[in-house]
Specification:
- With 160 residues, this protein is α+β, with helices and mostly antiparallel strands.
- It has 6 helices and 5 strands, in the order E-E-H-E-E-E-H-H-H-H-H.
- The chain has a 5-stranded mixed β-sheet with strand order 2-1-5-3-4, with helices on both faces.
- Helix 3 packs across helix 4, helix 3 packs across helix 6 and helix 4 crosses helix 6.
- The structure holds FE2/S2 (inorganic) cluster (2 copies).
Length: 160
């Protein structure tokens, strides 16, 4: 079945099994390998992308559900001013972790910062931790990532 959606600002049409997980379609058909297969059960968040401005787990979403939506992956975000702001903040806070969890952490921080009611207020630790709640990492703590969220909020003033 042919399914159309917008991916990182470009219209795409893929001919796939409509029930195939969106993660598989993104990775295997469209080369968006920043989304990772971790648990495959909606628990770890490593397959996160932004769909119509919601952070979603693509391992659980059949591709048909993406029909007519606008999707953003790290490939689309990483060269934008806001994406770069979050990535630079993660580097500054030494919050870059492994390749499995980092792409989704960037998307989660970006999503939080971009959807604040008031861009001039730095989110609290609690708000940042809540925004990261769907992204599991059992290797290290989240302190540096939380710090990165605050740095990106501060340094991105005027951007958000
Ligand atoms: S792979 Fe999708 S939530 Fe873990
Ligand atoms: S899962 Fe990436 S550092 Fe723990």
């Amino acid at each position: 079945m042919k399914i159309c959606f917008k991916l990182n600002g470009q219209a795409v049409k893929v001919d796939v099994d409509p029930l195939q997980p969106l993660l598989h379609t993104l990775r295997e058909r469209l080369g968006m390998t920043s989304a990772k297969q971790g648990c495959g059960e909606g628990e770890c968040g490593s397959c996160s992308i932004i769909m119509d401005n919601q952070l979603v787990n693509t391992c659980l979403i059949p591709t048909i559900q993406a029909k007519g939506t606008a999707l953003v992956t790290l490939e689309g975000l990483r060269d934008t001013p806001k994406g770069l702001c979050v990535i630079d903040a993660l580097l500054e806070a030494k919050g870059v972790q492994c390749g499995f969890c980092s792409p989704a952490m960037v998307l989660a921080l970006y999503h939080l910062l971009d959807n604040r009611v008031c861009a001039s207020i730095t989110p609290t630790d609690k708000q940042i931790r809540e925004a990261l709640a769907g992204n599991l990492c059992r290797c290290t703590g989240y302190a540096m990532i939380v710090e990165a969220g605050k740095i990106a909020a501060r340094k991105g003033e005027g951007l958000w």
